[in-house]
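Appendix B. Extra example for self-study. Work through it before the problem class; the solution is given directly after the inputs so you can check yourself.
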Amino acid sequence: MKNYFSIQDIDSLPNWVDEAIKMKKNPLSHKTLGVDKTIGLLFFNPSLRTRLSTQKAALNLGMNVIVMNFTGEGWSLEYGDGTVMDQGNSEHVREAAQVVSQYCDVLAIRAFAKLENKEDDYSEKVLQSFMKYATIPVINMESATGHPLQALTDAITITEHKKNKKPKVVLSWAPHPKALPQAVANSFVEMMQHTDADFVITHPVGFELASQITKEVPIDYNQENAFKDADFIYVKNWSAYQDYGKTKSDGASWRITKDKMKLTNNAKFMHCLPVRRNVVVDDAVIDSKNSIVIEQANNRTFAAQLVLKKILENN
Ligand code: CP
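Solution. Structure tokens for the complete assembly:
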């Protein structure tokens, strides 16, 4: 594995999850693996968990860490081939990626969907350009269409908490005042397709994820029906894929409540965070003993650490 761009870069999800759980028990077990190596973290969007957990993971492996917030601090980048750069963009990604490759041994990038143009977002312009021109491995810290570090985290968390071999896992859409990308949901779906589970997606009509990602995963448009007997409720908002980037102003009935959780098999509540309380989920649910969101966030470190370990060992 050179790059960690998507869930498809994982050769065996069960093996990776087992290894991450072992690493969690002894986080400093490979504390010299990354000595004298530097990771550069480039952020085109805000972050709390991804930024700090990836730094922590790198430090646990003995790496040096450089962080740059590109928006507002870096030169605005041009991605087009053959562009006459007489407009706003000051630097081409060709030079930027090659230059950064001289300062670092591993590069990690966060660049969200802009939700203006489906083709632009789903071509993964930023990540694909960096992977094309960088001469070092590139890690996806949430791109336009995927968040594979989060999904690996979610696989670890589900494995730790599942009580039966094949749990029922529900990915539920929930309301949000802003239009959000599909990245977290996409990677969660891809991850669940490599997991032994009874998996169902529930969302309002019109909020179908890309069919090339969901493939044969069942969709239940009735949220309460989907929740019945579930062992895990994984909640996320996403904007529409078909009517690209559109959100739903009348989606309040999809909020996660205590009554809906009562329909489940005493399900664990999961969310990648950040979450808007009492919009996405009621306090009574996120503060309940069944909420595992804080532990889920803790597992971000061990997902990132495992990915870094594999990259350091293979490059
Ligand atoms: N879940 C997640 O990626 O959190 P941040 O946006 O805070 O990094």
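Self-check: Residues 220 and 226 are 6 Å apart (CA to CA). If your reasoning did not lead you there, revisit section 3.
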